[in-house]
Prior knowledge:
Blueprint: E1 7-11, H1 16-27, E2 31-36, H2 44-54, E3 60-64, H3 70-80, E4 84-87, H4 101-122, E5 126-132, H5 156-175, E6 179-184, E7 187-188, H6 197-206, E8 211-213, E9 220-221, E10 224-225, H7 226-238, E11 243-248, E12 254-255, H8 256-267, E13 273-275, H9 291-297, H10 305-319
Parallel strand pairs: 1-2, 1-4, 2-3, 4-5, 5-6, 6-11, 7-10, 8-13
Antiparallel strand pairs: 9-12
Helix pairs in contact: 1-2, 1-7, 3-4, 4-5, 6-8, 8-10
Amino acid sequence: xxxxxxxxxxxxxxxxxxxxxxxxxxxxxDKVVGIDNLNPYYDVxxxxxxxxxxxxxxxxxxxxxxxxxxDAVRTIFEKHSPGIVCNxxxxxxxxxxxxxxxxxxxxxxxGFLNLLExxxxxxxxxxxxxxSSSVYGNxxxxxxxxxxxxxxxxxxxxxxxxxxxxxxxxxxxxxxIPCTGLRYFTVYGPWGRPDMALFLFTDAILHNRPINxxxxxxxxxxxxxxxxxxxxxxxALDRPVAYEIFNLGNxxxxxxxxxxxxxxEELGKKAEKNMMPIQPGDVPETSADxxxxxxxxxxxxxxxxxxxxxxxxAWYREYFRV
Length: 322
């Protein structure tokens, strides 16, 4: 790999997936230019703790900026000339998109367009970005395949992710920028997001609070461990293609009640459960068809939920000294 291609711009570097991807890139010797606005959507202290780990690497450079600030991001591009862009910055969360839709417009649409424009201007060799399993909406056919139609999103978050895939397609078609979209399926693990089920459940159970179980527990999720997600993301960064979409999932859908059961066992404590109806924007099931990802990226998830939950709980206990 030429030196110019080894400078990788990672947006959302202090986020859950961004942190893990950056750390793995740094451990293997790449230079990482990280951008993150450290927004207060969830605990900023957690983001700063992740960042502190990355800042121990001397080939890591960090900028606290918004990707929707075109001038600020252009300055970073011009200074570092990244050969590869890994765009993991986005306003996350399906449910929050009902509360603050405009934050999704700014980060997920305007910010994404800024990065595509700068990638075009700088002649970037590979543009990899986070899409989401939420683009499948209420698809009845499972497992979800990248060949399925995905034009019926059930949340604004999902609509912005589908828009990203279309924008990337246009830029690949017009300017030849190699673009890869990764549809992530319910990512969990150490240093995870506090708004995600595993974190919420663990916190509530350990502090004797009830947990909210939506759709009366009749939910299935393709829970995918963070290390497997990082493997797939790095494979995409290392293999530029013209334009592709890949599912990154565990390809083994787990019932929510089973997931909670594994967590209860790991914590040695039963959860008090509030059984609730499904929430607006939520889907009852996600399940990934990863045949194409296996074939083209060599992606092979290895972590069963029992191991993933055990690793998360160990991290949680250490981090919060519980």
